[in-house]
Amino acid sequence: MPDQTIELGQLTPTSPTNGSARLSDHHAPDEEDGTASSAIDRETEESGCTQANVEQRVIFINRAQPPVPKFVHNRVSTAKYRYVDYIKIYTVISLEQFRRWANVFFLMIALLQQIPDVSPTGRYTTLVPLIFILSVSAIKEIIEDVKRHRADDETNHRRVEVLRGDNWISVRWKDVIVGDFVKVLNNTFFPADLVLISSSEPQGMSFIETANLDGETNLKIRQALQTTAKVTTTHELTQLSGTIECEPPNKHLYEFNGVLREAHKTAEHLGPDQLLLRGAILRNTSWIFGIVIYTGHETKLMRNSTKAPLKRSTVDKLTNVQILLLFGLLFVMCLLCSIFNVLWNNARAKSDWYIGLEDSSQNFLYNLLTFLILFNNLIPISLQVTLEVVRFIQAIFINMDIEMYHAETDTPAMARTSNLNEELGQVKYVFSDKTGTLTRNVMEFKRCAIGHDIYSISENIDESLLVQHLRQGHKNAELIRDLLVLLSVCHTVIPERMPDGTVVYHAASPDERALVYGAAKFGYVFVSRTPDTVEINALGVKEQYEILTVLEFTSARKRMGADNVIYERLDNSSGREHGEVLLQHLEHFASEGLRTLCCAVADLKKSDYEDWKQMYNKASISLQHREEKIEEAANLIERKLKLIGATAIEDKLQEGVPETIASLLQADINVWVLTGDKQETAINIGYSCRLLSHGMQIIILNEDRLDKVRESILRHCDDLGDNLEKQNEIALIIDGKTLKYALTFELRTDFLRLCISCKVVICCRVSPMQKAEVVEYVTKYTKAVTLAIGDGANDVAMIQKAHVGVGISGAEGLQAACASDYSIAQFRFLLRLLLVHGAWNYSRMCKLILYSFYKNICLYVIELWFAIYSGWSGQILFERWSIGFYNVLFTALPPLAMGLFDKPCGADKMMMYPKLYKPSQSGELFNIKVFWYWVINGLVHSRVAVLAAAAGLPARHPVGLGRRGRLSGARKLRLYDVSGRESVCENIGENCQSLGHRERRSGSPAMLTAIYIIGISHVMTVCVVVTVCLKAGLVTNSWTWLTHCAIWGSIALWFLFIIIYSLFWPTIPFGSVMTGMYVMLFSTAVFWLGLIVVPIITSLPDFSVKVIHSTIFKSLTDVVRESEIRKSEPEVYRAEPKNSLSETARLLKNVFTRRTAPRIEVEVELSHGFAFSQEEGGAVSQTDVIRAYDTNIPKPPGM
């Protein structure tokens, strides 16, 4: 609603006259609107200008475009890969998997295994699993990318009317090409970047909503050139001919230069006022005609988007580093074994001549490679497959969570990538858009205050207390009438009567629209507008008012109801009696998060108005300092006001936003708001959604020069003193023009130090690239996990810059959702996504990774201990298939169960106690200390298993293990009986086929020794299997029937395997060395004793540590989990969120405070909930909008 001081005189009905409107010149927003190009933009400005001179674009009107310039198609994609070449996609994704050092390590091992006579484990034991891992990863990435393509198709397959010949046909967006004439209808998106030709509105005006681009809630006005504005029929459109010359595609949303050259007419300049951007929505306009100039990825919207990044979780990166360290440990082990092998051979070459050491010709490097292959399983190759499977299923759990399903829009949560599931549990900073994310962008008139009374809306007008007071001649009756007339007359709203007789209001300002609807609900209905008059229906009586003068709205003057501005201009003899009461009403409204406006009128004499009008006209035509003179003239008439009352409008929040933010803050998650909207609106929303709290100090940075910004930032940093970079109860509010200087290299560090010292940061009037810069710099400076959430195309850049991007599938389109990692329907679902799924997945993935390393170390390090007994020969101990099934069968289920079903506490408790998020957020469950604790734990358990098995080995067996020659690249075990007769067995892990069936039946000492060692290896294996399964049970917090099946079933699978494998021979000519093995094991007391003793010995220390930790050093998680098991309330203090309904009640205007702890100056100029949205300095002035419309004349149909 523009600022207006109007002489309201009732008129007799007159014939409407068409007014003319002065067309504004090309408007280029200056830095004051906060949309100046960011640092990233500035990097390309110079090159962009040069390119414009070289690659000027020429578009022919109503002619086919020449084949020389190559215009891109209108299909857009937010996916990482294209459909075109599946083999290429597979190759690229597979190569990307080598960012993980584990895959590089396994590739190296697979290559080493191809060298003849080096590998003791075969040539393909690593290569085949590696190919499988890469395939699983690639397939998963392809599946997730296909989902992105499908989401893109929802946009690409939208339809729009395109002129083909003389007819309008409906085509898909992706089929729109440069040079097409398109017809866009009301409340629909623009399919590409268009030049406005004409519209259904007077003088070619159109209203567009750019919240999807810049986050602003008010509508913008665009206006066609006067030469084309009259083209309102299809026939006239087909008669146009000529060319449009314009700059090449670029990313500058608010800049455009072009020339329209119609045949036989003077060329005319095209600017941003004629540009309709893809991503914007047509509002309050029946239709527009436009010509396509930029399509697809050449549109300004897509030019501001970046390529979808390949993100990796913090846990994944830390695991990558630990694998490098573990590889270093492995290399040291191999080096030591190779050295000891040389020493052992040199020491025993003569004394142990029967082993054949004198024939050994292997060199040191050869031995080193052998041990590298032998010990490579210390790094679990199965981990990658398990991680991919678990992450994929975790993503399905997110998609199927009924608690995050929005029934109203039939929208479930969607995990668009599964690589970041655990990252959701470590978020420290949340960067949120405002419009459409926190708010619904819907304004609703709630109540008004007049005199000592507050009036609310009633369903029935006659039942309204306000209407009753008006009709009954209450003491407030005169003020009530003044207020209702003011609301229904003084605005720029355009009424439209629908076929059913109802009146629909169109307005650039959502606040104005809400106020007019509010007046209508009290019986004062705005009916029609002409260039000079407005007509209302006042409780059944038609009244007409003449519009004398319109004073343009500016946010600097704040004449649209800021109480501190209005109160300064009140007449001392009028309205003061209600002033103090009204302030209390304003505080009450503000405490509820409502947007307030003060209303006042002035009585003027006709002679005074005429004198003032001459002065105002003189100021408006002044050649120097015109704006200052107009403001001075306006101030002369905006005085001696009579206070009427105040209005309260609700900027509706998304459901559950205040509770969600309060819980996020309790979870020690910092919430920043990055919005393109105005400062007053952002602050008002900050209070209503509990982001700003009662008693919180506020720092406002509004500077327009670099030196002032520097001085202000450094001053505030000095005032904080020792509390700098420690979180304080302070909120920082900064606008776009100040942020531009604050993010320069010179001030960036100091600015970020100030920001992280504040509990809340709100950035207003910021561009999409500034949002991305803030997220990027905070991410780099703090090294913390960041999350960005938004619903519009202007949020895509910051969504892609953050560690985790969350898109809202909202009313502003699907572009943010398509570019995100996770999409949800409402902001409130973010709480469950983080506190439940995030914390659960982090805990699960940490345990899975740690347990996978532990179980492999626990078994495969036994090869190191066995090397002590085998002369450091590199001989493998375990039977090949037994060891092969260890990761595939015997220990595959426990990590899957932990990764899918384990949870520290139930979902309800996680939501009820946000502090439970702290362990995952701070990385307590997975760090260097924890990782190496598990490694050492595995080393100790493996050593215990070897010592226990060695204790059961009879000392009388004459066993000599040596290395003489090689056979098919495999180690030979040479066994000698007491007579010196030699027998050869290839790798104990193989079938010992060379011994022959006769020797097996004869029970030769060589065969008995081989079988006995294999038996001992199985004893060790089952002891390790039971130990690691018990370890899985010990670290499991939540037992389900699937967990029981996974742990106890894994042990049972080993027994089932050993029985079946022992029965293969001779029915199946395979595994002859295992014949009768289960009988030998099950009939041996040592086996059963070891099966019981070894797991108990190894698990007892871990069990003791857990008992002590859960009793003496009990954490909040332990307390809540115990209460959940007992089904009782935990004996812990849970801080309840403060009631936001009183957070702004004590805000005072013109506040200046100085604190001592910390010592900081807080400069605030806030009024009681004042906020108002209106476009300033647009393509068409508010005066021209009012003077252009005559709603009594029907609009052209555009056919």
UniProtKB/TrEMBL annotation:
<feature type="transmembrane region" description="Helical">
    <location>
        <begin position="1077"/>
        <end position="1097"/>
    </location>
</feature>
<dbReference type="GO" id="GO:0005524">
    <property type="term" value="F:ATP binding"/>
</dbReference>
<feature type="binding site">
    <location>
        <position position="795"/>
    </location>
    <ligand>
        <name>Mg(2+)</name>
    </ligand>
</feature>
<dbReference type="InterPro" id="IPR008250">
    <property type="entry name" value="ATPase_P-typ_transduc_dom_A_sf"/>
</dbReference>
<keyword id="KW-0547">Nucleotide-binding</keyword>
<dbReference type="InterPro" id="IPR023299">
    <property type="entry name" value="ATPase_P-typ_cyto_dom_N"/>
</dbReference>
<dbReference type="Pfam" id="PF16209">
    <property type="entry name" value="PhoLip_ATPase_N"/>
</dbReference>
<dbReference type="InterPro" id="IPR018303">
    <property type="entry name" value="ATPase_P-typ_P_site"/>
</dbReference>
<dbReference type="InterPro" id="IPR006539">
    <property type="entry name" value="P-type_ATPase_IV"/>
</dbReference>
<feature type="transmembrane region" description="Helical">
    <location>
        <begin position="364"/>
        <end position="383"/>
    </location>
</feature>
<keyword id="KW-0067">ATP-binding</keyword>
<feature type="transmembrane region" description="Helical">
    <location>
        <begin position="321"/>
        <end position="344"/>
    </location>
</feature>
<feature type="binding site">
    <location>
        <position position="795"/>
    </location>
    <ligand>
        <name>ATP</name>
    </ligand>
</feature>
<keyword id="KW-1003">Cell membrane</keyword>
<feature type="binding site">
    <location>
        <position position="512"/>
    </location>
    <ligand>
        <name>ATP</name>
    </ligand>
</feature>
<dbReference type="InterPro" id="IPR001757">
    <property type="entry name" value="P_typ_ATPase"/>
</dbReference>
<feature type="active site" description="4-aspartylphosphate intermediate">
    <location>
        <position position="433"/>
    </location>
</feature>
<keyword id="KW-0472">Membrane</keyword>
<feature type="binding site">
    <location>
        <position position="675"/>
    </location>
    <ligand>
        <name>ATP</name>
    </ligand>
</feature>
<dbReference type="InterPro" id="IPR023298">
    <property type="entry name" value="ATPase_P-typ_TM_dom_sf"/>
</dbReference>
<dbReference type="InterPro" id="IPR032631">
    <property type="entry name" value="P-type_ATPase_N"/>
</dbReference>
<dbReference type="GO" id="GO:0000287">
    <property type="term" value="F:magnesium ion binding"/>
</dbReference>
<dbReference type="GO" id="GO:0005886">
    <property type="term" value="C:plasma membrane"/>
</dbReference>
<feature type="domain" description="P-type ATPase N-terminal">
    <location>
        <begin position="62"/>
        <end position="127"/>
    </location>
</feature>
<dbReference type="InterPro" id="IPR036412">
    <property type="entry name" value="HAD-like_sf"/>
</dbReference>
<feature type="binding site">
    <location>
        <position position="595"/>
    </location>
    <ligand>
        <name>ATP</name>
    </ligand>
</feature>
<keyword id="KW-1278">Translocase</keyword>
<keyword id="KW-0460">Magnesium</keyword>
<protein>
    <recommendedName>
        <fullName>Phospholipid-transporting ATPase</fullName>
        <ecNumber>7.6.2.1</ecNumber>
    </recommendedName>
</protein>
<keyword id="KW-0812">Transmembrane</keyword>
<comment type="similarity">
    <text>Belongs to the cation transport ATPase (P-type) (TC 3.A.3) family. Type IV subfamily.</text>
</comment>
<feature type="binding site">
    <location>
        <position position="677"/>
    </location>
    <ligand>
        <name>ATP</name>
    </ligand>
</feature>
<feature type="binding site">
    <location>
        <position position="794"/>
    </location>
    <ligand>
        <name>ATP</name>
    </ligand>
</feature>
<feature type="compositionally biased region" description="Polar residues">
    <location>
        <begin position="11"/>
        <end position="21"/>
    </location>
</feature>
<feature type="binding site">
    <location>
        <position position="435"/>
    </location>
    <ligand>
        <name>Mg(2+)</name>
    </ligand>
</feature>
<feature type="region of interest" description="Disordered">
    <location>
        <begin position="1"/>
        <end position="49"/>
    </location>
</feature>
<feature type="binding site">
    <location>
        <position position="433"/>
    </location>
    <ligand>
        <name>Mg(2+)</name>
    </ligand>
</feature>
<feature type="binding site">
    <location>
        <position position="771"/>
    </location>
    <ligand>
        <name>ATP</name>
    </ligand>
</feature>
<keyword id="KW-1133">Transmembrane helix</keyword>
<feature type="domain" description="P-type ATPase C-terminal">
    <location>
        <begin position="817"/>
        <end position="948"/>
    </location>
</feature>
<feature type="domain" description="P-type ATPase C-terminal">
    <location>
        <begin position="1015"/>
        <end position="1114"/>
    </location>
</feature>
<feature type="binding site">
    <location>
        <position position="553"/>
    </location>
    <ligand>
        <name>ATP</name>
    </ligand>
</feature>
